[in-house]
Amino acid sequence: MSNLISATLTKEAKEIHNNWERGTKSKKISDLIVMGSVNQRRVEDLTLGINDRNIQIARVIWELKDNPIYNSLCTDLNELLIGTIHYQYFNN
Prior knowledge:
Elements: H1 11-19, H2 25-64, H3 71-80
């Protein structure tokens, strides 16, 4: 184990820290740091997955958009991409 040299806490964080049982504070802080790192990696992975999904949806739209049979499907899929760089501006 390494020693934590110093930390600056907000008022709210200090109140929570002070309410923790003595002898468990270091372990809880360590667990929070590890969980924060895990959560950050999960968010990054989800973001990459969402981007990959958006790319695939855009590819499907691009391939099918000129076929009138798929017009409704392409419109619905394209609405999922609103607000992303993958949204396609085409006339239906």
